[in-house]
Amino acid sequence: MRIKQAVLLFIFTLGVSAVYGLGFSNSSATTLMRRTSYDIFGSQGSYSPVYELVQFDWQGKEDLGGSVYMRGRTGNVYYSNASSDLLVYAAYADWKANDNLVLRGGRQTIYQDIRIFSLDGLKVDIPTFFRPNVAVSAYLGKPAELYATDPGTNMLGFRTSIAVRDNASLAFDYQTEQKSGNALTSIGGVRGSATLGQVDVAALANYDLARSVVKNYKVDASLPVRKGLVLQGKYDAQTPDFDPQSVYSVFNYAYQQVQHASAGVDYGLDEDTNVYAWLGTITQDQSKGFDWRLGVGNKGGLLGYDTSFDYYKTQGLDGDREDLSCSASKNVTDKFVLSGRLNYGVAGGDKMLIGGVAATVKPRDNVDLSINWQSVMGGFTPNSKLMASASINLGE
């Protein structure tokens, strides 16, 4: 069913482009992958799917444009027989009715503070709504069936953005969702940001209107003390709110709320090197713990490689956890990039080591060839993965 819908959407967009004489900008990427995994019982499984990513963008003379972005996959999948599928991530057309009205119809991604999701429907953007400092966008449709969703769900939502002053802004989000059986959920959100003297402050809160529950809220602040030195503070509180029909709904009952408060400093030693440090406290219901993070980044200082090192540790709550990671990358030439990373983690007595290297070659301006190898040792599912891909931009 998904393949049929995807093909119809693709044919429709091609037909529209032919009628209106639109210009195309196309790209294609093919990825070959080989992965070998071991489960907790020591059984080995492997799969070698082939992925094809295709994107078509088009633009009319002035008022019409759009995009199609889809992924096809074929080959044997992890612990199963050979199969294939096709996912359409985007297939929409834009119509700019005038300087103050833009319509987008089709499969698209909706970005809101309360939620980011794919929608099959219509979105309307009004950059100036009665006043120059007020912008409004609204959408109506159904969640895209990229993954398992309730086919009877209808969604309606909007966002209002207000530039209060040159140094302050507000945004209000609202979304209502009606599922099969007439179950209705509504979520509201507000975001604000301002510069108070030298302090930049941003705050966000999301509220479940149907259940009268605060889903999450957070506050971020930063203060540049002097050149290269920035003090930062964060506070974040979240309440688990997974879909009751989802397999992750068990986390709704694992705890009631998690609160995280932290303070940090970021210092640029020079133009190429910066260091940072964070210290925070974590509260999960009645349990308390703390975490801290240290890191350093450098451009070109180690044999010409851009490098970064990061150490993170939590203590208390359900057990201690440590993560140490490092990465390096280098533009060997204008057309050849080499990179690698290594991560070592310990959680609850379990140790895991993840390593990987990647190389990208650009034989022509519109062609990219890359190979990526990754290995996971320890943990519940040790595995190794080798991927090779080729990407070409066909131009207009």
Our measurement of the CA-to-CA distance between the termini, rounded to an integer number of angstroms, reads 32 Å
What is the strand content?
over 45%
Tell how many strands the DSSP assignment holds. 23
Low-confidence stretches: 1-11, 16-22, 77-82
Overall, the morphology is globular
* Mean pLDDT across residues: 81
Number of helices: 1
- Main sheet attributes: strand count, strand direction, barrel closure: 22 strands, antiparallel, barrel
The share of residues in helices is under 10%
Notes on the structure:
The chain is mainly beta. It has a domain at 99-210. Helix content is 5%, strand content 70%. It has one helix spanning 2-20; strands at residues 23-38, 44-47, 50-59, 64-76, 82-98, 101-111, 116-126, 134-143, 154-165, 168-178, 184-196, 199-208, 213-226, 229-238, 258-268, 273-284, 287-302, 305-316, 321-333, 336-347, 350-364, 367-378, 383-395. The protein has a 22-stranded antiparallel barrel. A hairpin with a 2-residue loop joins strand 16 (273-284) and strand 17 (287-302). The relative contact order is 0.09.
Key descriptive features of the protein:
1 helix; mainly beta; 70% strand; 5% helix; disordered N terminus; 396 residues; globular; 22-stranded antiparallel β-barrel; single chain
